[in-house]
Input
Amino acid sequence: MSARVLDGTAVANQIRGELLPQVAAFAARAGRPPGLGIVLVGDDPASEIYVRSKLKSAGEAGLRADLERLPATASLDQLLTAVDRLNRSDAHDGILVQSPLPAALGEDAERRVFDAVDPRKDVDGFHPINVGRLVQNRPALVACTPSGVIELLERSGIAIAGARAVVIGRSDIVGKPMSLLLLHRHATVTICHSRTRDLPSVASEADILVSAIGRPGFVTTAFVKPGATVVDVGIMSITDRETVARMFPPGSKRWDTYQKRGALTVGDVHPEIAEVAGALSPVPGGVGPLTIVMLLKNTLAAAESRARAV
Amino acid sequence: MSARVLDGTAVANQIRGELLPQVAAFAARAGRPPGLGIVLVGDDPASEIYVRSKLKSAGEAGLRADLERLPATASLDQLLTAVDRLNRSDAHDGILVQSPLPAALGEDAERRVFDAVDPRKDVDGFHPINVGRLVQNRPALVACTPSGVIELLERSGIAIAGARAVVIGRSDIVGKPMSLLLLHRHATVTICHSRTRDLPSVASEADILVSAIGRPGFVTTAFVKPGATVVDVGIMSITDRETVARMFPPGSKRWDTYQKRGALTVGDVHPEIAEVAGALSPVPGGVGPLTIVMLLKNTLAAAESRARAV
Output
């Protein structure tokens, strides 16, 4: 094991520590704390966990955080009405509609709901106007996971300017904003995906390799240039014995955890890359804690920006 | 000379031929032609030429095209008033404010003016909401030059899916939208810029190399993998004898043109790459004619989309 571990939890705590006095100062000025409204439709167990965790973190940071629940049977109109109420609420600076929405709402439901969020309250950074402002390198609310990765790299002393960065995955939520954030910090950025030919060879050009595709242990040593920084953004719970065994040899600590629980939280990155990489943001413990703290940071930024606009 | 020449003029004429009946059909349905409003501030000679050319092409394609001129001394408010008038005009589907604006208007004048254009009429594709929709791979008005490059590649039978594409230049107008358009067509895209280390080596990974930096003859054979497709988006008029001689040997046709006129229109790409590249979109004659025809195409699309929305 040679790679330095980039400690997402430590960086998240550092940012949290910086936010506390800023949140308090806002509350003193405004006579109210920054407010986050979360809309949760249905009862997907993973979403429940994420939402609890966001509410708890927001509360601990001194934010007001409200959960609006809608039944799995809710109509798109009901959901849009809930969003509209939060758009018009003076107490709420940030709005988050937990994804995924129930499939019954239709294929374009998420897009329609994200578009309906007031861009000034769009703390997920999913509204096209925030995405466009990100492309133009202007102040914007930016998706939490990629901006968390930037914080992690910068606060861990990883040089981005001049580096070759390779992003695996071209999603709207991670891959594309991640590429833009790296580009604006003067990395030479390559964005890869399912149609990329000879992916290991392309990936191994990277000084900074970010993987966000959601395939357990997909990124092996063949993808990694010796000494490179590897950030694992994939996160999933796996139950398949063979997949676990491929990543963690029987007898290892993680294998034992799997034996006990019957499931294991893993990322895109195979643990073997620790022998090759110079630095590694692992799963769990890497980017996850940063995503939540960036949500709080975005909510504070939205609150301050709304207060300035009044 | 081995590279196949990608003939931008021929492709532009092909698209123009397709537009004519579509414009006529729109006019018959709507009782008016699609309308383009161009705002020109001041009297920059290059801008004069571009605007004339746009007006002429629009007229030939059956569009209504109006030029609103403002003096170089116009205030930002006067300019924004002109834009607002076009925003509210029923006869105008597309609005183009010719860049660059006079420096006296201030550094952020262009940004403020482009933001003021109704996104539905934003035929330059500069409004953040159109840029965001482009990122999200949704219907949008997209910047004319990069979408012209896509037309040129696709209609010339250059395979984009699975190709490695390298874009040199990260401007909002060409480099970034170009990268996104190539990405959505399943290229593996690398975006390079002034801070890229060992640019020739990175560029020579490309199956499709697009240069948009505005440095005469900068892209030499060292940048080009044998057989690659090279698209020259840089365009400038040079007068410096040594720069011309570096690109065109005394005695050549282009050198003679320079001798006669004292200036020469050149691109980023050194002509020597024709010996290495498989296909080449040269300057002049490559992308330039496509940029204008994409403006007409965008104006028709904006007209059709506005008519549907009524």
Observations:
- DSSP finds eleven helices and eleven strands in chain B.
